[in-house]
């Protein structure tokens, strides 16, 4: 009977030590989480301050800007695209070898087609 009591006491002691170790571990983890949250808040505060400074500089730079004085863009040209049969401006296809073979229209070929049709 004494042996059972000692075994029970040892088991109880082991369980208390284990519970205490778990509590200490949880407290350490909670402290680490608090520290990480604090560092995150500090980072956010520094980032917010940097953003506010950047936008303040941007506003200052824009106050002296002459963007409103820039001339307006010229109107975009109108393009006449070719049909499947190759019919278009002057019945020709820019860059194509024959009226039925159209090359892909690129800004350069479209510009050439536009300027050559105006001459």
Task: Give a short synopsis of this structure.
The protein is mainly alpha-helical. Helix content is 62%, strand content 0%.
Helix content: 55-70%
Q: What is the number of helical segments per DSSP (H or I, 4+ residues)?
A: 2
What form results from the Cα inertia axes?
A: rod-shaped
Low-confidence regions: 87-96
* Beta-strand residue fraction: under 5%
The helix/strand class is mainly alpha
The gyration radius over C-alpha positions equals 39 Å
Number of domain modules: 2
Total number of beta strands: 0
Order of helices and strands: HH
Mean pLDDT: 75
What does this structure look like?
The chain has 2 domains: 1-64; 76-94 and 104-119, no CATH class. Residues 87-96 have low confidence and may be disordered. 62% of the residues lie in helices and 0% in strands. By secondary structure, it is mainly alpha-helical. The chain has 2 helices and no strands.
Q: Which short descriptors sum up this protein?
A:
119 residues; mainly alpha; 2 domains; 62% helix
Question: Which SSEs are present, and which pair or pack?
Answer:
Blueprint (H helix, E strand, L loop, with lengths): L1 H62 L43 H12 L1
């Amino acid at each position: 009977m004494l042996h059972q009591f000692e075994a029970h006491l040892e088991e109880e002691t082991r369980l208390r030590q284990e519970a205490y170790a778990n509590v200490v571990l949880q407290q350490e983890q909670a402290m680490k989480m608090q520290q990480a949250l604090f560092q995150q808040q500090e980072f956010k505060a520094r980032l917010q301050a940097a953003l506010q400074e950047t936008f303040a500089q941007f506003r200052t730079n824009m106050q002296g800007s002459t963007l409103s004085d820039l001339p307006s863009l010229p109107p975009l040209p109108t393009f006449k695209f070719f049909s499947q049969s190759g019919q278009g401006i002057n019945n020709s296809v820019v860059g194509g070898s024959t009226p039925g073979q159209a090359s892909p229209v690129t800004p350069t070929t479209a510009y050439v087609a536009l300027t050559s049709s105006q001459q």
